[in-house]
Design a protein that fits this description.
- With 439 residues, this protein is an alpha/beta fold.
- The protein folds into 3 domains: 177 residues, FAD/NAD(P)-binding domain (3-Layer(bba) Sandwich), CATH 3.50.50.60; 115 residues, FAD/NAD(P)-binding domain (3-Layer(bba) Sandwich); 71 residues, Enolase-like, domain 1.
- Helix content is 21%, strand content 27%.
- It contains 8 helices and 26 strands.
- The strands form 7 sheets. A 5-stranded parallel beta sheet has the order 3-2-1-7-19, with helices on one face.
- Helix 1 packs across helix 6.
- The chain starts with 11 loop residues before the first strand and ends in a 39-residue tail after the last helix.
Length: 439
């Protein structure tokens, strides 16, 4: 028997996507007292799980798939349809069709399909030894392959790529990290921290090929050949590509919705151009009015949780006015002995301040550093490395107020310009085992 709650214009709500945003939306519908039918469609056969774990403990063997399952609200009375990928939406008839030839009718719809891996079209996807890392199955397959690998090339030095390379080094394998930028984690933490972390990655023994692009990727009899734009050739047992993602919106083609870099929504996550539909998570592009009226996407786990919950309330409100959904992007990562934490936005035009927790140390990142991003006197972003207590103290203020103005993150000397960081130095190349190439 369903819980009693407020009356709704909907009898059946379908949530497409069983990730963090989709599960949060389904749970919040019940918390809000929705008494109708709630169905969640998931493209993967696995029960909902925490996707960030795919590039962390799963690869090193510290965690198993059962350890990363996402807890779901007890007694939520949600019907799960897993292993069913949405392939078409008819917004007029309000029907979602799946690759299993099933059709799901809805009164209200939550789009939370996230993103898929973005790969160059000429890469030999599907060949043994070439791995992507988007799903639990991807992570489990890579973990098994790492057991017999000596050298692994990771293409893409973003957050996931750096975590993969860190896991490879933890397993005592050679890791080669390739990226077009001259430093790691460029988009995730900005240039200042990116250059600091790059030196620690090199010290850990990762072979860096930064400022380089992959021009060729081919399968050999005993491994892979990766060709770079400077003529260098890297032989490896495995290749892991983490070159980026794109919103999973192909199934929405032909609906008339604006699918330019995600599903376009208003400030409350209502999908523009369709009635009774909201979107949440990485697939949603909406104006986060905390920072700007320009529609953007946000791919962090915490933001997906908050968006999923907010989208549920917006959907139940129908045509009633609802408050804008504003989130503060934030995430963390443990790699190479560094605790990296980010809160807020890191605009290029911002004034950057750097706070060294132990001034004078050459290993600035390992010793602890805070980097603040200020826009017109307001702290809009903060990056911390090995400074968890100071990070927590400052971000509490950032989260509590829509406008936070601070002179310095903590009561230690602040440098008004980024600290001088030497250009990244590549780690000494380990002796290569040149693999025989097929003629």
């Amino acid at each position: 028997m369903r819980r009693r709650g407020p009356r709704s214009a909907y009898d059946r709500i379908v949530v497409v996507g069983a990730g963090r945003a989709g599960v949060a939306a389904a749970e919040e519908l019940r918390r809000a007292g929705f008494r109708g039918d709630v169905r969640v469609l998931g493209g993967e056969p696995d029960a909902p799980y925490d996707r960030p774990a795919c590039s962390k403990g799963l690869l090193t063997g510290h965690r198993r798939p059962s350890d990363v399952r996402m807890p779901v609200l007890d007694g939520a009375d949600i019907t799960w349809h897993l292993g069913r990928r949405a392939v078409h939406l008819d917004p007029d008839r309000r029907i979602v069709s799946t690759d299993t030839d099933e059709r799901f009718r809805y009164d209200g719809l939550v789009i939370a399909t996230g993103a898929t891996a973005a790969l160059p079209p000429d890469w030999p996807v599907g060949e043994p030894g070439l791995h992507t890392l988007r799903t639990l199955a991807d992570a489990w397959a890579l973990r098994g392959a790492l057991r017999d690998a000596d050298r692994v090339v990771v293409i893409g030095a973003g957050l996931t790529g750096c975590e993969v390379a860190s896991a490879v080094r933890t397993l005592a394998r050679d890791a080669v990290l390739v990226d077009a930028k001259p430093y790691v984690l460029g988009r995730a933490v900005g240039e200042t921290v990116g250059r600091l972390v790059t030196r620690e990655v090199a010290r850990d023994g990762v072979q860096l090929r930064l400022g380089r692009r992959v021009t060729g990727l081919s399968r050999r009899r005993r491994g892979w050949l990766v060709e770079l734009d400077d003529g260098d050739e890297i032989h490896a047992d495995l290749v892991v590509t983490t070159t980026g993602e794109r919103p999973d919106v192909d199934w929405l083609d032909g609906t008339g919705l604006d699918l330019t870099d995600g599903v376009l929504c208003d400030e409350s996550l209502r999908v523009l151009g369709a009635a009774g539909i909201v979107a949440a998570g990485t697939v949603a592009r909406w104006p986060n009015l905390r920072y700007s009226a320009r529609p953007v996407r946000c791919g962090q786990w915490i933001a997906a949780l908050q968006q999923g919950r907010a989208a549920a309330h917006t959907l139940l409100a129908g045509d009633q006015e609802t408050p804008p959904v504003t989130v503060v992007p934030r995430f963390w990562s443990d790699q190479y002995g560094l605790r990296i934490q980010v809160c807020g936005e890191l605009p290029r035009h911002a004034e950057v301040t750097v706070t060294e927790l132990r001034p004078g140390r050459r290993d600035v990142a390992r010793a602890g550093v805070l980097v603040g991003y200020h826009d017109e006197g307001r702290l809009v972003g903060l990056v911390a490395v090995n400074a968890p207590h100071a990070f927590t103290s400052v971000t509490r203020s950032m989260l509590a107020s829509a406008s936070v103005t601070v002179a310095a993150p903590v009561s230690v000397p602040v440098v008004s310009e980024p600290v001088a960081v030497p250009e990244p130095v590549a780690a000494p190349a380990a002796p290569r085992r040149r693999l025989a190439a097929a003629s």
